[in-house]
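Sanity check

After download, print the first record. It should look like this:
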Amino acid sequence: MRVLFFGTYDARVHPRIRTVRQGLAAAGVEVPERNVPLELDTATRVDMLRRPWRVVLLGARLLARWWRLWFDSRDVGRVDAVVVGYLGHFDVHLARLRFRGRPVALDHLASARDIAVDRGTTSPWLLSALGRLDRSALRAAEVPFVDTEEQRAALPPSQRSRATVVAVGAPQEWFAARPAEREARPDGPALTAVFFGLYTPLQGAPVIGRALALLAGSGVAVTMVGRGQDLPATRAAAREDTDVTWIDWLDPAALPALVARHDVCLGIFGTGEKALRVVPNKVYQGAAAGCAIVTSDTEPQRRALGGAAVFVSPGDPEVLAAALRDLAADRGALGDLRSAAAARADEAFRPEVVVAPLLERLGEPR
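Expected structure tokens:
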């Protein structure tokens, strides 16, 4: 089987498409790729949609990428299916046109409407337009796939039965970054934790900021990586005398090694509807890298992690701070939690495991 990966996605920013490609390759599928990243982050896209005159810029850039994609794919040869990466709401239509008669799978990791709501959009006309964009993209894909059962349930009723659940998982490099053993640090902090992300409301980073203020002087050292909408509020919530390192940008290739050096990887703590129905990249990646996981207590995260995490109430900085203090005080429990997270990642988060439902759908007779 040959499956073409196609579109304007950016695998460095949204690595789920890389996990899917690695998983299919591990299953013996040929996975050629034609990818011309749009190079516009999600926040910029949403801002463009809020300002109608800027949509022209989005359209012009998209058409330029499509021109390259169309011609770059002339020599791709026969393919049995096409996978369009995340934020491919427009790309899926190009794929249908370019590869007529071939099934197209769309990574519908998040709807355009959900993204806009998460970033504070309230305009009824814009949300309605984005809802239509989502439905159009889903109709264009023979095999839309989402990451949790809750995400599938949130799809339009006509699309739910067609959608496949494919867990996010983690790319191979996160497993490779896992240290064989942890170095003892008798003179270092009692506990090190790391958060990385785009500081969207879904992630609940200001909750972490308030927890950091409560942890001052506790021996818990935290690294905060990334930048975005909620970064100012997060920094304001964290006191200046807390043991926090702020890194506003890091090359994605360096992120697995940095995370793997920490005891704990922090997940998400938002309270919005979307936050309650997803399992974020960082939970899968942190577990793959051998960190203990502390994240919000939601049904999809409990289902993904089982007993291999500490779950805290969404939006509750006091409970989060208490969980980190407890782990700092009990190195034995911390070690058990790290081992459990790594074992769960090996069992369920590797690329070849998470792509099994998608591979089954792509292999169905048509």
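If your output differs, re-run the checksum step. Summary of this record's structure: The chain has a mean pLDDT of 92.
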